[in-house]
């Protein structure tokens, strides 16, 4: 079976139709009826970046949004058990 979106994928697993592999940041919240078992090997990493124009100062509103995004990502990764480096 091929499923194209996360909601259908998780519903299929909850229904007992199979198992799946998901990144830690995509795992469902507690109480979903699913168990999340981290893989021991291999270790998988994802690099997420922010692109800006070279040698250009960010507008204050953009700088504030950038700081908020980094703060939110740090909080989200801590809740999900991921590591932000």
From TrEMBL:
<feature type="domain" description="LysR substrate-binding">
    <location>
        <begin position="2"/>
        <end position="73"/>
    </location>
</feature>
<dbReference type="Pfam" id="PF03466">
    <property type="entry name" value="LysR_substrate"/>
</dbReference>
<protein>
    <recommendedName>
        <fullName>LysR substrate-binding domain-containing protein</fullName>
    </recommendedName>
</protein>
<dbReference type="InterPro" id="IPR005119">
    <property type="entry name" value="LysR_subst-bd"/>
</dbReference>
